[in-house]
Amino acid sequence: MRSGFHIRKISLFLVILVLFALPKFSDAESPKYSRSNFAGEANFSDIFISRMQENGDRWIAQDKFYHFTVSAGLALGSFYVYRDVYNNNREGSYYFSGGFTVSIGALKEYYDSKHPSKHTASWKDFVVDVAGTGFGLALAFIVVD
Q1: 134, part of any domain
Q2: 84 in helix, strand or coil?
Q3: CA-CA distance, 33 to 53, in Å (whole number)?
Q4: pLDDT tens digits for the chain (145 residues)?
Q5: Burial of 74 by CB count in 10 Å (0-12 exposed, 13-18 middle, 19+ buried)?
Q6: Is 130 contained in some domain?
Q7: Residues 121, 112 contacting (CB under 8 angstroms)
Q8: Which of 111, 138, 134, 135 is closest to 122 using CA atoms?
Q9: Coil/strand/helix, residue 131
């Protein structure tokens, strides 16, 4: 069960990276979003395009770091659980982990779009979620036998 050991080490490394990198970011680097109140029902394109604010939503920001590392950790962790704990094949584990992690990112942005007074949905966050998922699956490909 050596591959499980490597995945746990990498997952622990990602958690430690997040914890130690948090103090490095200042509030000045955080994106400043303009908040708007959207009333009424919205169609799909309203939720995922027009409601996603771009004011101050930078590609290099603390929020994007969180999205990337959490997505990578979820992808790697769900790959390990689906493959080694539930004894599934490698190919199916990639599909499950990728779908699961991207779905979590999409649901988070959907939640943000439904609560504009507290959260701001961002298409850039979702793109970073997908990139983090890819990175986590690439780590799984490299580490797991």
Answers
A1: yes
A2: helix
A3: 7
A4: 455 566 566 666 655 555 555 444 444 444 444 444 444 545 544 444 444 445 678 899 999 999 999 999 999 999 999 998 999 999 999 999 999 999 999 999 999 999 999 988 999 999 999 999 999 999 999 987 6
A5: buried
A6: yes
A7: yes
A8: 111
A9: helix
Instruction: Read off the tokens for 112.
Output: 């943000």
Cα–Cα distances in angstroms (integers) from residue 84 to residues 7, 53, 118, in the given order: 10, 40, 38
pTM for the full model?
0.66
Alpha-carbon span 17 to 132, nearest angstrom: 14
Structure tokens at 37: 């109140």
Residue with tokens 């050596």: 2
Per DSSP, the residues of 102-114 read HHHHHHHHHHHHH
Q: What range defines the domain where residue 72 resides?
A: 1-11+66-145
* Domain-located, residue 113: yes
Q: Is 77 exposed, middle or buried (0-12, 13-18, 19+ CB in 10 A)?
A: buried
Residue 109 near residue 121, CB atoms below 8 Å: yes
Q: How many domains does the chain have?
A: 1
Are 122 and 52 a contacting pair, CB within 8 Å? Answer: yes
